[in-house]
Amino acid sequence: MRALALDCDVLVVGGGIVGLATAYAVTRAAPGTRVTVLEKEPGPARHQTGRNSGVIHSGVYYRPGSLKARYAVGGAAEMVKFCAEYGVAHAVTGKLIVATGREELPRLHALAQRGRENGIAVRELGAAQIAEHEPEVAGLAALHVPTTGVCDFAEVARRLAEASGAEIRYGARVERVDRRPSLGVAVRTARGDVVRGRVLVNCAGLHCDEVARLTGDDPAARIVPFRGEYYTLRRPELVRGLVYPVPDPAFPFLGVHLTRGIDDGVHIGPNAVPALAREGYRWGVVRPREVGSVLAWPGAWRMARRHWRYGAGELHRSLSKAAFTEAVRRLLPAVEAGDLVPAAAGVRAQAVLRDGSLVDDFLIREGPRAVHVLNAPSPAATASLPIGREVARRALAALETA
Predict the structure, then answer these.
(1) Please, are residues 295 and 201 in contact by the beta-carbon 8 Å criterion?
(2) Which end of the chain has fewer surrounding CB within 10 Å, N or C?
(3) pLDDT in the model for residue 252
């Protein structure tokens, strides 16, 4: 009778690329397993998945041995293969990481070493060689990373949804979770529907910590939303491919970069400013309860005290187009303010610990009959297939003991 009362075996909350990759991995690993995905939006990939620069990251940035390094390196190759198999537009273009000041040269060299430790065949270039790849880009030295590419991640998510065979319920925002370790997990949606499963998988992205708490588990971190603002380049002929600055190792953000997308347009950005709502894609979107939740988290204040100078610079570039243009001109001197056309912004779901540390790796935690993905910002889209397999492995293990 208990089995008959259940709607599914694995109940996934979140229809972004990680949630859908998990559903896909579960049905591939254990055919016949019933999977239901609850997504609050009317379609898949409406937030982090569909609002990024579409880059298939190589894995060059990430600490050797970390989940980000392992899953991005392997995931990039898998993502290209998946796109080819399912007819998703993609291209392997390679990219340049460019040092524009002498103080960046040691970091660039260290990045080359890290890339090689991660198994990536990077090539160090001098100033003259930069021009062979990007005639309009200025720099003292650069890394060429050949395995970086671009694709349409929203289309990848749609293909995963179709291929998974899962039941996808859109417009199903989770309001309550009732977990009974001896029975299963019941979720009530905003529409009043109740969906019951044996194991819950939380891939709720910007709301993952809230879903964890609804389930009764302590996420030990709080999602602090950072908005990334983009422009498109009115003169896309200035950029041939992908051009990045040397990142600041103290932050998980990669800095303002130039990306020729799969649509042949060039995106510039993002910066990283605190958003005033978890889905705060504009300064005018303010949700006091969500702002209060961030301000009540001690880690948010500790993070602000530690990194206020960096944050002030990002805020200045957000409020001043001239300042943003000046940051772009370090890489692309020919660009003018009139070349930058505002484009849709994204919001990064960044987990922050109580001590103010920004979680710098993917974070997956388990509770009774539950698996929570608590930190999966970039490069999670690139790494979504191996992330999905890992989450699926844990969910299937939980099914065996349920």
Answers:
(1) no
(2) N
(3) 65
